[in-house]
C-alpha cells in the first residue's frame, strides 16, 4: 500500500510547487521592417527596481543570443561595451530620461535615439522594459499570484522609427500561500518573447 501512496504523494508535492503558469504574447512589426537592412544592433539591459543588475544582464544576453539564432548574420554589440560608449559620450542621463519617457508614453524621442545610435555605431537599438509588476500572497481563499509584463522594442538608430515591439505577460499562481518570485514570472514572459523575435 505504501508503494502506491508514495508516487501519489510525490505528484501532489510537485503540483503544489508548480501551480498554474502561462504567458500571453502581443507584437507589432512595422510594415517597412526588413531584417536585411539591419546589420548591427545593440541589446541594452533592462532597467527596473524589481530585478538586480546581474539579472538584467542575464536577460539581455539571452535576448542577444535569441536574436543571433533568429538572424544568424546579425552582429550584436554587447551591453557592457554599449554602456561604456554611452558613458564616454556623456549620454547616460539623456538615455535614462529617454527610457522613463518612452516607458510612459510609448513614443520614442527620435533625436535621442539618433544621437545614441551614432555614438554606438549601430543600425538599431533594442531595449527591454519590465512593466506592470503585481505580486500578492494567498489570503486563505485565493491562490497567490505573480504577474509581470515584459516588453522589447527595436528602434531604427538612424531614423528613430519603431521597427518592432513584442510584449508578454507572465503569470504564475502556485498552489501554496506564498507568491512566486518576480524574476520567475519575468523569465516566463521572456521565454515567450524569445520564440517570436522577428526575422
The third-level CATH topology is Rossmann fold
CATH-derived architecture = 3-Layer(aba) Sandwich
Question: Total domains, how many?
Answer: 1
Shape: globular
What share of residues are in beta strands? 25-35%
- Beta strand count: 6
Structural class: alpha/beta
Low-confidence stretches: 1-17
CATH superfamily: ABC-type transport auxiliary lipoprotein component
Please give the order of strands in the largest beta sheet.
1-6-5-4-2-3
Order of helices and strands: HEEHEHHHEEEH
Distance from first to last alpha carbon: 56 Å
Taking the sheet with the most strands, its summary is: 6 strands, mixed
The whole-angstrom Rg is 20 Å
Level of helix content? 40-55%
Please write the CATH class name.
Alpha Beta
Q: Count the helices. How many?
A: 6
On the 0-100 scale, what is the average pLDDT? 88
General description of the model:
This protein has helices at 2-18, 53-70, 79-88, 92-105, 110-120, 182-194, and strands at residues 20-29, 40-44, 75-77, 124-136, 145-156, 162-173. The chain has 199 residues and is α/β, with parallel strands linked by helices. It has a single domain, classed as ABC-type transport auxiliary lipoprotein component (Rossmann fold, 3-Layer(aba) Sandwich), CATH 3.40.50. Strands 1-6-5-4-2-3 form a 6-stranded mixed sheet, with helices on both faces. Helix 2 (53-70) runs parallel beside helix 6. The longest helix has 18 residues, at 53-70. The chain is globular.
